[in-house]
Design brief:
It is built from four helices and 13 strands. By secondary structure, the protein is an alpha+beta fold. It folds into two domains: about 80 residues, Alpha-Beta Complex (Outer Surface Protein A, domain 3), CATH 3.90.930; about 80 residues, Outer Surface Protein A, domain 3 (Alpha-Beta Complex), CATH 3.90.930.12. It starts with a helix and ends with a helix.
Length: about 180
């Protein structure tokens, strides 16, 4: 059994967990999240903790799923209480972003601005050259941040583009510097 699956998930104050037809629903101050429990996995709530175990101990293919199920439940509990956020940084001359309601408009050197609408449960915020994506669902926050980054990924020569706040871009030497070093 997974070492992670052995640790129970503690339920924080203000969080309600319910089960309906092999679906776990987590409700909290930041919203509602649900997850379909895989067949063969047993989830129990007792004493303010959620524990994950196998229904049949002899099934070999389900052991890796235990840690995944526990991690997803833990992320749902954390998401409905505190939420998740990803920060992206715009670097380049004339690169800017603006929010208007649920829409994010990004100008990154194309002939037209790129407009992205936030799905339900996500919000955008822009502060100078930093875009912040926040929401309760960790998967949706990460996918939306990756989608925004894919509009103009950072290039290795000048470092221009959209990158994660803590991402380090590996820079390459240009043609002129290579030619001088080759002599």
């Amino acid at each position: 059994m997974s070492k992670l699956a052995k640790k129970p998930v503690s339920i924080k104050e203000g969080v309600n967990i319910t089960f309906e037809n092999d679906t776990i629903k987590v409700t909290g101050p930041n919203g509602n999240l649900s997850f379909g429990i895989p067949t063969g996995v047993d989830v129990k709530v007792a004493d303010g903790r959620v524990s994950v175990s196998l229904k049949d101990k002899n099934q070999e293919g389900l052991k890796p799923v235990l840690g995944l199920t526990r991690a997803l439940i833990s992320n749902m509990v954390t998401g409905v209480v505190t939420g998740f956020e990803k920060k992206l940084e715009l670097s380049g001359v004339g690169y800017r972003a603006q929010t208007a309601g649920r829409d994010l408009t990004i100008s990154v050197g194309f002939s037209h601005p790129v407009k992205i609408t936030a799905p339900d449960g996500l919000t955008f915020a822009v502060d100078e050259n930093i875009i912040t994506v926040t929401g309760a669902n960790k998967d949706m926050v990460g996918n939306m941040a990756a989608r925004i980054r894919s509009i103009r990924p950072p290039e290795p020569y000048k470092g221009k583009g959209i990158k994660y706040k803590d991402e380090r871009i590996r820079r390459k030497v240009g043609k002129a510097a290579k030619a001088l070093g080759a002599k």
